Amino acid sequence: MTALAIDRSPPERRGAAMATFTSAFELGIGAGSIAAGWVAAGVGYAAMFLACGLSPALGLMFGLQQMRRSSPALHPEPTPPLSTRELASKPDAD
């Protein structure tokens, strides 16, 4: 998913996309654990497991919707892979 987030971003915004994705992922883990505990304590384990199962499904639907809406201008033709010989012949950028 990280690669998809980076691939869907323009080159000059890839650092921000990676930071946003990683932050949202970590916050989701923390907040999801707390929310699951509250649901389990308040309503029961069955409701907690139902909520934990529905959350990824909703996220998938949202993600697919966003992928359909994205601008084709953000997706240039992929760069062809380089051979080992081509990589070895390139000087370092340092």
What does this structure look like?
- This protein has 94 residues and is an all-alpha fold.
- The protein has one domain.
- Helix content is 70%, strand content 0%.
- The protein has four helices and no strands.
- The chain has helices at residues 2-7, 14-42, 45-69, 84-89.
- Helix 2 (14-42) packs antiparallel against helix 3.
- The relative contact order is 0.08.
- The mean pLDDT is 84.
State the assembly state of the protein chains: single chain
Order of helices and strands: HHHH
Q: Please tell me how large the radius of gyration is.
A: 20 Å
User: How does the overall form come out from the CA principal axes?
Assistant: elongated
**What is the percent of helical residues?**
over 70%
Low-confidence stretches: none
How far apart lie the N and C ends? 30 Å
Q: State the domain count.
A: 1
Mean pLDDT, nearest integer? 84
The number of helices is 4
Tags for this entry?
mainly alpha; about 90 residues; about 0% strand; single chain
Which secondary structure elements does this structure contain, and how are they paired or packed?
Elements: H1 2-7, H2 14-42, H3 45-69, H4 84-89
Provide a concise account of the structure shown:
By secondary structure, the protein is an all-alpha fold. It has four helices and no strands.
